[in-house]
Structure formats: structure tokens, C-alpha cells
Amino acid sequence: MLPVLVDVLAPVFAIVAIGFVIARAVNIEPSALATLSYWILGPAFIFNVLATADLDPGVVGKVVGASAMAMLVAGVAAALLSGTMGVGFSRLAATVLTSIYGNVGNFGLAISAFALGDDVLPIAGIVMVTVNTLGILVGVGLATFRHGSAWSAIRTAVGSPLALAVVPALLVNISNIDLPVWADRPISLLAGALIPVMLLTLGIQLALMPRAIPDPRIAGPLAIKLAIAPLGAFAAVALLNLTGVAADVVILQAAMPAAVFTSLIALEHDLEADYVTSVVLVGTLVSALTLPVVIAWL
């Protein structure tokens, strides 16, 4: 597994570390970079990879289905764990959120490309849109359920720039439209900037987060996100007869640690923010040990 650590994970963690060090050395906020990625670079990436990819609709459907099934397995496991521990609804919701919503953007895209090759980026992009959309729906839905306003989760997820970029990209792909150079080149340049900018943003976000609170109770959601979720993805791709690199991407993306966005949801909605932040920070560090195992397995 040493080559995996050196060739695949080291470059990713190096860029994250640069963002971390910069955030500690100078006064820099991640909000501008996050907004740039969310509104411009992310949609450009999704459009670029989906509009030009050789996609089989059947494979796309299986990728979406397998990703959703892996999230369902992790969510059920988190709910059962919380039920056996007798925790309240807020802790249950926080555990489900961090168990299903993986860092398929900042981490997932880069690690998938480094481990499996740039050709898998269209599939990784589909997984990213699927997990982000469902993660926002479930996360914000659970967080706002106490106030009866889960409808905001649907509006947020469906109206996100990443989701909105999918339809025009697929239309261009299906219609075999060749974009003019003046349009294609700017989109390609912006798309190429997404991965490094997101990794830097992740480092900055981690540096500015509160310290992880030592809490043995985070072992449960960590085990679910880093072990049970990829096993659920493995079962899902087998059930749907999804094979090859598409199956590998689904499994690898399912093995990513909890997304930083889960902490933002928790802070925004007062949903066990310290607990969620601990899962995000510790999970990101522990994934340096678990991801090489998954990659070597694949």
C-alpha cells in the first residue's frame, strides 16, 4: 500500500496541507473560494465532463442507483446505531448526516482521478452530483424537521448549480453538439481549476474549524462512513450488475470521509455542531489509513 500512499494520497494531502498552513499563517477566509467553486468552477466541471463523455445511459442509471443505495445502507446503519445507544433525535440526525454524506468533491474527485485515471472523472462527477443532492436533501431535511420546514432542503438541493449543470450537459452530449472554441476553452479552463481550488479550500476550512472534541462516540459514525459505506457500495454495484471502473468509482467515493459541508449544515441549523465537526476532522485524518486499503482492494 506504500505506492498508494505516495502516489495517490500524498499529492492530495499535500495540497490540503498547503491550504491549512496558509490559513494559519495569514488571514484568509474560505468563503470566497467555496463560493467560486460552488457557483462557477463546479458547474463548469460538471458540464465539461458530462458534455464530452462517452456515457451509457444504463451505466449512468446504475451509478446513481448504486450511490444512493450505499448512502441508504450507511444511513440505516447510523439510525440503528443511534437507536441502540438511546440518543435523542438531534444526535441521531447528526450521525446519519455524517454517515451518508461523504467528501466526494474536495477529496473524492482528486483521489478517484489519481487512483483510477482521469478517464473516470465523468463517473466521479455523476457520483458527486448524486451524493451532494441527496446529502443536502437528507441533511437539511433532518436538521429542519424539528421546525417543519424540510421543503427548504428540496429547493436547496434541486436548485444547486451542480444539479442545474447536469441537464444542459446531457443535452449537449446526447445531441452530439460541438461547442464553438470561444465557449469550449473557457469552460475547460474553469473545469480544470476545480480540483486544486477545492483541495485548498478544504485545507483552509479544516484550519479554521474548532478543535475536534475527543469523544469515543464518534467511533460509530467513523466506522460506518469509512467501512460500512464502501461495503454497502460493493453490495449495491453487485446487485445492480455494475462492473469495471464505474463500480470502482462508486465504491471509492463511498469510502470518503464525511464532507466538510456536513459541519456547515450542523452549524447553520444548530445540529450537534461540535459532534459533527469532530467526525469531519478525525474522519479526514483516519481516511489516510483506510483509503489505501480500499484502493488496494479495488
What does this 3D model show about the protein?
With 298 residues, the protein is mainly α. It has a single domain (2-297), classed as Na+/H+ antiporter like fold (Up-down Bundle). It contains 13 helices and no strands. The protein has helices at 2-25, 31-52, 57-85, 89-100, 108-116, 121-145, 151-158, 161-175, 181-208, 219-239, 244-254, 260-269, 273-297. The longest helix has 29 residues, at 57-85. The protein is globular, with a radius of gyration of 18 Å.
List keywords for this structure.
298 residues; mainly alpha; Na+/H+ antiporter like fold; 13 helices; 0% strand
Could you provide a short overview of the structure?
This protein is mainly α. The protein has 13 helices and no strands. The longest helix is centred in the N-terminal third of the chain and has 29 residues, at 57-85.
Q: Main sheet, how many strands, which sense, barrel?
A: none
- The Rg value, from CA coordinates, equals 18 Å
Q: Show unreliable segments.
A: none
Number of domains: 1
List the helices and strands and how they pair.
Elements: H1 2-25, H2 31-52, H3 57-85, H4 89-100, H5 108-116, H6 121-145, H7 151-158, H8 161-175, H9 181-208, H10 219-239, H11 244-254, H12 260-269, H13 273-297
Helix pairs in contact: 1-5, 1-9, 1-13, 2-6, 2-8, 2-9, 3-4, 3-6, 3-10, 3-11, 4-6, 4-10, 4-13, 5-6, 5-11, 6-7, 6-11, 6-12, 10-11, 10-13, 12-13
